[in-house]
Amino acid sequence: MTSPPNKEFSPRDFLAAASALGSASLLRLPSIAASEPPPETPRIRILEAPLTCIAPQIVVRELLHAEGFTDVRYVKYLRDTQHWPPEDLLAGEVDITVSFPPMDLRFLNELKKELKA
Predict the structure, then answer these.
(1) Residues 50-108 pLDDT 10s
(2) Could you say which of 29, 51, 76, 106 has the lowest number of CB atoms within 10 Å?
(3) Is residue 37 part of a domain?
């Protein structure tokens, strides 16, 4: 199967590649690789915030289930928590939150002033 880069596949090359793929499927490799143990805690709480792009919040549930989290909870602002990031994370109400670094810096500077007083 050594064809020049600009040449089209010949029927012989196509059949060789297709049979190689078919043979590989017969190996019956496990669909889920067991490279890591499941997480120590099955629960994870995520802030459900009205952002400009909510696609990551939608997709992450299935990805976290695939990683071994069995209890993925969404915490809604004003229904489940009265704090906005990063205070919700510091208060222990969520495990993952959204963040806007300039606001975080302002919050941390205010917290630093309070601790000095």
Answers:
(1) 766 777 777 888 899 988 899 999 988 788 888 887 788 888 999 988 777 887 888 88
(2) 29
(3) no
The structural domain count of the chain equals: 1
51 located within any domain = yes
Q: Tell whether 29 is covered by a domain.
A: no
CA 20 to chain centre: 33
Question: What SS3 class is residue 47?
Answer: strand
Pairing of strands 71-76, 43-48: parallel
Q: Which of 103, 62, 74, 73 is nearest to 86 (CA)?
A: 103
For residue 88, the enclosing domain spans 43-116
Residue 65 lies in a domain: yes
For 13, phi and psi rounded to 5 degrees? -65, -40
Burial of 94 (0-12, 13-18, 19+ CB in 10 A): buried
pTM reported for the whole predicted model: 0.57
Residue 85: C-alpha distances to residues 59, 80, 96 (Å): 21, 13, 10
